[in-house]
Specification:
4 helices; about 70 residues; mainly alpha
């Protein structure tokens, strides 16, 4: 995934889960560093695959990982 696709995925994630900003502010000591870390981890993942996973989490097909449940 390139930088433009990564930015697009982040915007999609924020639309699907609008409370993620609050979650990051409350659970991460450095929210921007967390986002950069996620971007680095996802850089080798094709955009379509990452987008599909977000959709499946949004739709309840894939459960969120326990540490990332909504607070």
């Amino acid at each position: 995934m390139n930088d433009d696709e990564s930015a697009e995925l982040l915007q999609y994630l924020l639309r699907c889960f609008p409370d993620i900003n609050d979650w990051l502010r409350h659970t991460s000591p450095e929210p921007m560093a967390t986002l950069r870390s996620w971007q680095a981890c996802l850089s080798q993942v094709p955009f379509d695959a990452a987008e599909a996973v977000v959709k499946e989490i949004r739709d309840g097909i894939i459960p969120t990982l326990e540490p990332y449940h909504r607070y």
